[in-house]
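tool=predict chain=A
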Amino acid sequence: MSLQNHNVASIARVYRGTFVHSTREVALNILNDFVLGVDSRGKIAFIQEGGNVDSLSQEWGFDTSDVQNLGQHEFFMPGMVDTHIHASQYTYTGTALDLPLLQWLETYTFPVESRFQDLDFARDVYTKVVKRTLRNGTTTACYFATIHTDASLLLGQIADDLGQRALVGKVCMDHNQMVPHYKEHLSESKDETLRFIHELLQKEYPHVKPVVTPRFAVTCSSSLLQALGEIARNYDLHIQSHISENKEEVEVVKQLFPDCGSYTDVYLRHGLLTHKTVMAHGCHLSDEELMVFHKSGASISHCPSSNISLMSGMLNVRKVLDHNVKLGLGTDVAGGYSPSMLDAVRRAMDNSKALTMRDARVQPLTFEEAFRLATLGGSEALSLDDQTGNFEVGKDFDALRVNVGVPGGPVDVFPGDDPKVILEKFLNLGDDRNTVEVYVAGRRVVPFPETK
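tool=predict ok
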């Protein structure tokens, strides 16, 4: 890079220590004693071996005395990407896990979501869920809101205020026999979706964007799905929904769309499977459907906690990866009982081992692979990997500063624990106490600024 390009943005901060991240070639790359520079735009300007610090300081014009050195048990890792979370369900997280999906929606979810026409209620819930996920290291979240446009716009504002990178979706549904008052008319859903998109884009938030959000095929007419596919195409937007979460749901979709060859075919025919689509769950997708996912570039959000909690099924992650389908992890709050992506990592490994116990031919996930799914894999699933996901030069500095030796924390360290061991302990044992700083696009968002 030329000096002229160097001068486009000055160096805002420089760190020296251990950095861990994934690349397209390897699930885990550990960089011991490296120096990383973040420029004034929040982008990674350089990442090189620590011995180059003096030459880097001359080249980039920073003082070596300003370099921040990480402690013995500290490291930086990329921020985690939650590819599927229902912000509106946060009030009952950790409860109401006694029913399968469709009965769960009728009994708990739809009644709660209908309350979000109350903006005071929405502000309280959405502020808490964004803060909680940020504290737990979620730098990027793909959110379902509700059918309420103004409350969904409020979620976008809160994510921007607190500094989280977010895709925010106003939920669309014009069929709901379970809770009839919680739905929209077809024309209303289309009009309000367009209003939501226009108003959110007009805000010009740097890291918060709209995502077209048909709830799932069970609650959407063919006309609504078609309209949403056209809107997504016209505005080049992301798309999110659910697919093949449990067997009862799959059968209902077959009855509702008898002319479609599969659940995947429903979305494909309506223009909703693109390279910017993320579909949650996919527990019961066939090999043929996974081939369609690969061809379209659409991705799957693996939500292992929810899949088990609601007794939906177990996604064979190895099969998805073998089909070269993009895959990330999701907490799926509140079907998933924890808003922490660390829990999603742990449940993903448990899920894969359970499948291996059932069929020894299935190779379980390693912790390195689960780490990749939570970071770079998630950014790929959301088609944001040109901006975030690892520590490549030119990407935004979305990062967690982790200290596994923090006083009073959940992890004990011992002499000889190398960075790989320390990372594995954090993934299996750590929590928000270990996440001492969180950055999104170079902005420190955790600890939260003190308010008067």
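Residues 1-5 have pLDDT under 50 and may be disordered. The longest helix spans residues 186-203.
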